Amino acid sequence: MDIIPYFLYIQIVKNLFQYGMIVFRKDDNMLKIGCHLSIVDGLYKAGLKAISIDANTFQFFTRNPRGGKAKDLDRDELDKLRQLMEEHDIGPIVAHGAYTMNLASDKIQTREFAKMILKDDLERLKLIPNAYYVFHPGSHVGQGSDMGIELIVDALNDLIDENNNTTILLEGMSGKGTEIGRNMEELKAIIDGVKHNEKLGICIDTCHLYSAGYNIVDDLDGVLKEIDDIIGLDRLKAVHLNDSKVDFYSHKDRHEVIGKGTIGLRALVNVINHPLLKDLPFNLETPNDLEGYKREIEILRREYR
Ligand code: FE
Ligand code: FE
Ligand code: ZN
């Protein structure tokens, strides 16, 4: 008579265990995707907005993208954000530096201004939970890449010391105008020049890569091998997921809605599913409103394996 309840007990434990396994696997295989969001109403509100579109990462400008003063960070708000991120398994999130920040300018005032902004941004990042910092390396404005890289390296060496705890990511660029970071060699040269580069990595942008001549549509494996050979994939910490309005190798930078551009949905789905990339945070910077981002996230989650 005792054998029946015992058997049932085993069954229940077994079922619970199986259920636990399923939950574990699901959490373990969760696409980290989000989009660029405005923080005009604060970081906590941005977190709520992310949740409303089923995002589990998001990106924001630390200040007005054209430069200018950053809003003061509120301790209470940051605590609320931290709690929200923990509860909903959000993060890492990505802070993006201002576009106008040019550490490679030929004008000392412009370089000093950029350094001041970067310094302030890095101070603020210490307070923001589980956040990476991404910025565009800069433009050499005719001085040549070597000079531009040297100026960026000098600036970063002034700002990054042995106590730095923020993951700082150089974004790979399309190579428009005199942009630095148009190829892996340039990003690598910056990383190598920085003394305390332990926390210095890269962020790739699918639109920029394709424009810069990295064929992620026909040869994603080859592109990843090249990144690995030159920089090392351990430095790659974040991805901007964008389609492109312009042709391969055009050195132009025009983002397009996922699936509507020259890269196409299939290639972007391969990016999120690639074994070497699939655990990274992906952020959309496509021309969209919140509804559009929600749709893109839904499509990409459905295609995630
Ligand atoms: Fe960017
Ligand atoms: Fe980008
Ligand atoms: Zn871009």
Strand content: 5-15%
CATH architecture title: Alpha-Beta Barrel
Fold-level CATH name: TIM Barrel
| Contiguous helical run count | 10
Low-confidence stretches: 21-26
The CATH top-level class label: Alpha Beta
How far is it from the N-terminal to the C-terminal residue, by CA? 47 Å
Radius of gyration: 21 Å
Largest sheet: 8 strands, parallel
What does the model show?
This protein has 305 residues and is of the alpha/beta class. The chain has one domain: Divalent-metal-dependent TIM barrel enzymes (TIM Barrel), CATH 3.20.20. It is built from 10 helices and 12 strands. It has helices at 3-28, 43-52, 75-87, 108-125, 145-159, 184-193, 206-212, 220-230, 264-273, 290-303, and strands at 33-35, 59-61, 93-96, 131-135, 138-139, 168-171, 179-180, 200-205, 236-241, 243-244, 255-256, 282-284. Strands 1-12-9-8-6-4-3-2 form an 8-stranded parallel β-sheet. A two-stranded antiparallel ribbon has the order 5-7. Strands 10-11 form a two-stranded antiparallel ribbon. Helix 3 links the parallel strand 2 and strand 3 (93-96). Helix 2 (43-52) runs parallel beside helix 3 (75-87) and helix 5 packs parallel to helix 6 (184-193). The longest helix is centred in the N-terminal third of the chain and has 26 residues, at 3-28. Mean pLDDT is 93; it is low at 21-26. The chain binds fe (iii) ion (2 copies) and zinc ion (ZN). One fe (iii) ion (FE) is lined by residues 171, 205, 240, 285.
Set down the secondary structure blueprint.
Elements: H1 3-28, E1 33-35, H2 43-52, E2 59-61, H3 75-87, E3 93-96, H4 108-125, E4 131-135, E5 138-139, H5 145-159, E6 168-171, E7 179-180, H6 184-193, E8 200-205, H7 206-212, H8 220-230, E9 236-241, E10 243-244, E11 255-256, H9 264-273, E12 282-284, H10 290-303
Parallel strand pairs: 1-12, 2-3, 3-4, 4-6, 6-8, 8-9, 9-12
Antiparallel strand pairs: 5-7, 10-11
